[in-house]
Amino acid sequence: MNLFDETCFECSKVITKKYSTSFSTGIRAFNKRFRYPVYAIYGFVRYADEIVDTFYGHNQRELIDDFQAETFKAIDRGISTNPVLQAFQQVVNQYGIEKDLIEAFLLSMRMDLDKTAYNDDGYKTYIYGSAEVVGLMCLRIFCENDSALYDRLVPSARSLGSAFQKINFLRDIKSDYEDRGRTYFPEVDFSNFTEEDKKLIEKDIKQDFDDALVGIKQLPAGSRLGVYVAYIYYLQLFKKISATSANTIIEKRIRVSDTQKIGLYCKALLHRKLNFI
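Structure tokens predicted for Phytoene/squalene synthase family protein:
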């Protein structure tokens, strides 16, 4: 790898570490050949998310349009002077990541510029584009051009992305609802969020987790532990949210402490040694 390319991947690595300790720790559990490609995916999606979530006072729609145009230009040319897009286009071209996955992701980002509430169809479309396709991009990397394995694991990868996103929605209710005016869950009134509402959402997430674990156990050895680390981090977050009242969820962001994360990482290593995964 030449110096320019290495620097671009390192930029995505820095972005990942700055924005997510959970994912950056999970990535360290991957075989080394998978780490830069996954950093590149995360750097790309994080930049797009920042445009729609924090670039207030600027023309966000124009910025996301420009970002999309530059993304596909980089993919088609096979090069970009933007370090995040340079790393991303290399991964897209090397692993054959489909453009429709990228388009679905960017569509969901645009939905955040317009939507404040979702019906069932809009909710499913948003989750597919914002989370499930990110899992599918990573799955392309992990399967290393084994199309049969990829096709078999697609449902589980989508379920894992779906679980992560729904937990993020529950964790971030306060900021999404109060600061951004967004309500992702269909037919849920967050001015009167009830225990029944919360339990129905949790039942859906539990099914996603169960479906995801089936696929995690079938991942190639070089990626299995890293995905499992992210899985158990989010599973612990889910358990904490489940044990917290609906009223508290509305007022407080639930998190897993750094100390707990270290313990969970050790637990994942033990599970691997015991062949649980």
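The longest helix spans residues 147-171.
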